[in-house]
Design goal:
By secondary structure, this protein is α/β, with parallel strands linked by helices. It has 2 domains: 125 residues, 3-Layer(aba) Sandwich (Rossmann fold); 92 residues, Winged helix-like DNA-binding domain superfamily/Winged helix DNA-binding domain (Arc Repressor Mutant, subunit A, Orthogonal Bundle). 43% of the residues lie in helices and 21% in strands. The protein has 8 helices and 12 strands. The strands form 3 sheets. Strands 2-1-3-4-5 form a 5-stranded parallel β-sheet, with helices on both faces. Helix 2 packs parallel to helix 3. The termini are far apart.
Length: 228
């Protein structure tokens, strides 16, 4: 039985070939392209199970490509693993905050890449099967499958991360979560996302929710909860 399909967007053809060989050896269907523009077209047409995306690309860079992927209805739920030589914390946080699911720095071991890809695909599989029903709470309706939020019947535009945070908190009304717990629930374990990045997302989320933003409460010294 064929395994999942992987789309690799990487301008170094030697790296592409090495990754393609290792993925194929493990049974994955792997395809590689050298530009973000070509990768975006293939992603929309074929909707792979996961995208490996280099940050430093000719033309459109990886951050902008990730932004486009996460904002498009056909590709917004495809997990993205960034593969790049830029490893500073600010680069990591920037990538994760626009929706990347993992971040691997070069030079890398193909075995590490395979292990991280497997972990992201397992997490994606669990997420797709969990808490799929719409949530009706206060004057909000949250549709996980549609990636849609309605307030009094009117749609609200949220970023990928804002939606994930709102959905997580609304699934557990009254429960208090630390910033670290929120990060782990939204992204998975062991991501170098700062407490401040969670705070920034909460501020943006409250602003977009308008009067309904009061349902997200700050618990001083602990974190956040969604009002029961």
């Amino acid at each position: 039985m064929a395994k999942e399909s992987i789309l690799m967007i990487e301008d170094d053809e030697d790296i592409l070939e090495a990754l393609r060989y290792n993925f194929a050896k493990e049974g994955y269907q792997a395809q590689g392209v050298i530009s973000a523009e070509e990768g975006l077209k293939i992603a929309r047409d074929r909707q792979p199970d996961l995208i490996l995306l280099d940050l430093m690309l000719p033309g459109m860079d990886g951050l902008e490509a990730c932004r486009v992927l996460k904002s498009h209805p056909k590709t917004g739920e495809i997990p993205v693993v960034m593969l790049t030589a830029k490893g500073e914390e600010s680069d990591v946080v920037a990538g994760l905050e626009i929706g990347a699911d993992d971040y691997i720095t070069k030079p890398f071991s193909p075995r590490v890449v395979l292990a991280r890809v497997r972990a992201v695909l397992r997490r994606q599989s669990r997420t797709e099967g969990d808490e799929a029903a719409p949530i009706h709470i206060h004057n909000l309706v949250i549709h996980p499958g549609r990636h849609q939020v309605l307030i009094d019947g009117e749609p609200v535009e949220l970023t990928f991360t804002e939606f994930r945070i709102l959905h997580f908190l609304a699934c557990h009304p009254g429960w208090v979560f630390t910033r670290h717990q929120i990060t782990n629930a939204v992204r998975g374990d062991d991501y170098p996302v700062t407490d401040r990045s969670v705070d920034v997302h909460i501020v943006g989320l409250r602003k977009k929710l308008g009067d309904s933003g009061i349902h997200i409460e700050t618990v001083r010294g602990v974190g956040y909860r969604f009002r029961e």
